[in-house]
Amino acid sequence: MPAPAPTLGGGPVTTLAYLGPEGSFTHQAATGWSSDETTLVPLRTVPEVFAAVASGEASHGVVAIESSVEGYVVPSLDAIVSAPEVVAVDEAFVSITFDAFVLPGSDAPPQQATAHPHGLAQCQGFVDRHGLLPVPASSNAAACRDIQPGQVALGPPLCGELYGLTTWEQGVEDFAGARTRFLLLTRRDAVSPRQDEAPATWRSMLAVTPHLTGPGVLARITAAFGARGVNLSSLITRPVKALEGRYVFILTVDAAPWSGDLHEVLRGLLDAGDSVKTLGVFPSRGELDRTVDIDRVPAGSVRSGSTPADLDRGLLWGDEGREVDRGGEPRAGASRAGEPRGDEALRETRGGEVDAS
């Protein structure tokens, strides 16, 4: 992992809070933002990390925000959405691999697997293969530190030596090459926007909350970005707490709020009556591969060229032979039920021959 440096402001990284204990994947991310003058402070929970940054107890904090296997880390996402004093100023990616550890001298097969919920999910095949009962822990490193007899702990390879454990099996993750994205946090009032930098070098996380919902609301919001040529690379929703059917839209875009195009988008959303909040602005590292291999799409997905039967099965759009427009009439070039189609019609009108001229 490259050693990133905060470029949006927030001052030097003097005290860095992270989800501990030592040896966690978050600890690995934190070391990339630390120097000889940085004090690393392991904390027990994500809310504690946000509280330390908001209060000034820590100059910065580190939290996991997104797994390439399990998606967004909901506690971190909800915390940054709801924290008025905290903003993200950098991001980094850590490669994720899990080893399975047991206590030294353990002879009996383990009955339980303990790890962070995301860790358990990323090693589901291993857990199922050995018939283990999942036991969630506050972090993968905490699972290794606090392992009990009869348990196998799933965590970063360095936890074995760090906590004096025996490696039971290596590389037990379901998907090789997985990565987790981490955010560097600081106080919002410590940030100084770098308006001298080229807009294309930045990525921003935004929270948009429409106050009036109904048909077309999401389309209106996303169209605002497209109309100004601002690339929208991620979209996720979180509920407005205790209000059914009301959502906060969290968007990641390839621009900075001070750039002309995104600035105009944000102004337009405000004028439309939406509430908007910048959750983070950080340099784009150009590390994301924008392509998706066909074997990674959801099973049962269909594409152009799929058979009519597969299209009907995958899309559930009704009779595979039906081709109608929105008014209920056959589309141009489509035949009604029982009528010949295409070359068949030509053959009937021309005695079975088709003029290719």
From TrEMBL:
Q: What is its EC number?
A: 4.2.1.51
> What is one GO cellular-component annotation here?
cytoplasm
Residue ranges of domain ACT in the record: 206-284
Pathway per its UniProt entry is:
Amino-acid biosynthesis; L-phenylalanine biosynthesis; phenylpyruvate from prephenate: step 1/1
According to the entry, every stretch annotated as the Prephenate dehydratase domain falls at 15-187
> Is Amino-acid biosynthesis among this UniProt entry's keywords?
yes
From the UniProt record, which GO molecular function terms apply? Answer: prephenate dehydratase activity
Q: What class of enzyme is it?
A: lyase
Where is the segment annotated Disordered? Answer: 298-357
Q: Per UniProt, which keywords does this protein have?
A: Amino-acid biosynthesis, Aromatic amino acid biosynthesis, Lyase, Phenylalanine biosynthesis
PROSITE patterns of this UniProt entry?
A: ACT (PS51671), PREPHENATE_DEHYDR_3 (PS51171)
Q: Quote the InterPro entries the UniProt record gives.
A: ACT-like_dom_sf, ACT_dom, Preph_deHydtase
GO biological process assignments: L-phenylalanine biosynthetic process
Q: Where is the composition biased (Basic and acidic residues)?
A: 319-329, 338-357
Q: Which PANTHER family match?
A: PREPHENATE DEHYDRATASE P PROTEIN, PREPHENATE DEHYDRATASE-RELATED
Q: What is this protein called?
A: Prephenate dehydratase
Originating species: Sanguibacter inulinus
